[in-house]
Amino acid sequence: MRLVDRLTNDMKQAMKDKDKLKLSVIRMVKSSIKNEEINNGKELSDDEVLTVLTRELKQRRDSLQEFEKAGREDLAASARDEINVLMGYMPEQLSEEEIRTLVSEVIQQTGASSKKDMGKVMGALMPKVKGRADGALVNKIVQESLS
């Protein structure tokens, strides 16, 4: 089943279950997907939908950090709940060890030796971990490996 179809089915189920949180999050995601389709002038593939989901998840995580810094526990709890809903649509996340293994492989393949080669490594690595790992964590591991 396509990811968009799954979102639509889950949205219908959330309406039936009167699950306001899930319904709200799915509606926001579907809106972002629709905007992306309008901008691209075509229907999005599952990979492109995953990119939109990843962007939405990153926005929620950034908001969560800001809310925690500001001491707004009410808003932080809401952001955590939204993140949990979004995580249900993401592929299984890679462990830190799996990311380190991939980083090592890509460094060997690209022949990278210093932090100057970081762009080359990240460019080759990100398509392999798309949607399955947080970009900030990947960036941190690549920096550690290249230093």
From TrEMBL:
One of its GO terms (molecular function) is carbon-nitrogen ligase activity, with glutamine as amido-N-donor. It comes from Aneurinibacillus danicus. InterPro entries: Asn/Gln_tRNA_amidoTrase-B-like (IPR003789), GatB_Yqey_C_2 (IPR023168), YqeY/Aim41 (IPR019004), YqeY/Aim41_N (IPR042184). The gene is gatB2. This is Aspartyl-tRNA amidotransferase subunit B. Gene3D superfamilies: 1.10.10.410, Uncharacterised protein YqeY/AIM41 PF09424, N-terminal domain. It comes from the Bacteria.
